[in-house]
Amino acid sequence: MRNFNRDDRRGGGRSFGGKSLGRRDSGPVTMHQAVCSNCGQSCEVPFQPTGSKPVFCNNCFRDKRGGGRDDRDNSRPSQLDEINAKLDRILATLKA
After folding, report:
1. Is 72 helix (H, G, I), strand (E, B) or coil?
2. CA–CA separation, 96 and 38 (whole Å)
3. Rounded CA gap, 55 and 41, in Å?
4. What is the pLDDT of residue 79?
5. pLDDT digits (tens, 9 = 90+) for 30-70
6. What value does the mean pLDDT of the chain take?
7. pLDDT score at 60
8. Which of 22-31, 43-52, 76-85 has the highest mean pLDDT?
9. CB contact burial 47-84 (16+ within 10 A = b; e otherwise)
10. Backbone phi, then psi, for 32, in 5-degree steps?
11. Domain residue spans in the chain?
């Protein structure tokens, strides 16, 4: 039988309850100079550009993504409504 004690830290490296939100805390990020592929302005990026992919400044990246995180979150209530309706049908079927 498996050992389910909280002190057993061999859980595959997963950290539940931490505040990292999936990001590794590896210290300060080194910023690299780049030129935006869209507007041509000088910008800094947290990775070393190789030239194989386009690099965008903050403004062009935000415009390309359609306004940021807020636009994507608007679809969630309708998705939750659909999921709830499906769950209601499943529960009704199970009760029958």
Report:
1. helix
2. 59
3. 11
4. 86
5. 999 999 999 999 999 999 999 899 999 999 998 888 755 55
6. 79
7. 92
8. 43-52
9. eeeeeeeebbbeebeeeeeeeeeeeeeeeeeeeeeeee
10. -120, 145
11. 28-68
The token duo for 91 is: 């529960």
> Under a CB-based contact definition with an 8 Å cutoff, are residues 58 and 43 in contact?
yes
* CA dist., res. 30 & res. 48, Å (int): 9
Residue with tokens 């505040």: 19
Dihedral sign, CA of 11, 14, 18, 24? Answer: positive
End-to-end CA separation in angstroms for the chain: 37
Residue 70 to residue 62: CA distance in whole angstroms: 11
Q: pLDDT band at 73, cuts 50/70/90? A: low
